[in-house]
Amino acid sequence: MVTQPSREWAADLEMSEVLHALGDPVRLALVRDMAESGESPCSPEWLQVPRSTLSNHWRILREAGITRTRRMGKARLMSLRRDALDARFPGLLDAVLADGRR
Fold first, then answer.
1. Residue 71's beta-bridge partner residues?
2. Cα separation of 81 and 78, whole Å?
């Protein structure tokens, strides 16, 4: 079962919300991880932040329309809404992800 964020359509994405969500180093690391792996568990082992802080980061990404959540039993897996982001802001995600590779 897939739980969709409240912002289902690409047209609903707001540039200011997306940039705000991508502007935090932890959230950017989560987005990079999803871009590389496809899905991320709600508590990635490589990230050392308090659970409550991590929940807040996931909420900001979800509310900005950047991620979607898939439930698998008790686990939740997050993935990028790359198609929607690319449709609304062509090249933005690629530029943001490439910036960290310099």
1. 76
2. 10
Largest CA distance in the chain: 39
Residue pair 82/94 in contact by the 8 Å Cβ criterion: no
Retrieve residue 90's tokens: 């062509």
Residue-by-residue pLDDT tens, the chain, 102 positions:
444 444 456 778 899 999 999 999 999 999 999 999 999 988 888 888 999 999 999 999 999 999 999 998 988 999 999 999 999 999 999 999 887 654
Q: Where are the beta strands (DSSP E) in 2-102?
A: 2-3, 40-41, 67-72, 75-80
Class of domain 2-99: mainly alpha
pTM of the model: 0.83
- The structural domains of the chain, with segments of one domain joined by +, span 2-99
